[in-house]
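Run log, item B.
One chain of 129 residues. Sequence copied directly from the ordering sheet:
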Amino acid sequence: MIYGIGTDIIEIDRIRNSINKNPKLLQKLFSEDELDLLSSKNFKAESVAGNFSAKEAVIKSVGTGLRGFSIKDVQILRDDLNKPIVVFSGEFKNFCESINVEKILVSISHSKNYAVANAIAILSSNYVE
């Protein structure tokens, strides 16, 4: 059963400019595993923007905004086929467990100017209304 959905869109140039002004921004927004992933993509602005947009979409899918957990607790990684996956950690993991969200599906895309992501939060199959 679906708990919620989220969508986010961001201008790639906005991310590029923010990183150029403050290189430490990446460490504030992304976990070590995410930084390793983005490093493998040479920190291309469209990759960074896509992952950031995915984090925002995930947060919207659970309807909280960024309250009670760090943005680093929402990790956007890749599976063996390079499909984006959401990994829960820290307080975000605890929150998702408390609302019976078992997994969150995410899709990321970008054009020349924009990155967009969609997320669907899925309730545990054990959930009873």
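Observations after the first pass:
- The chain has five helices and five strands.
- The chain has a mean pLDDT of 94.
Flagged for discussion on Thursday.
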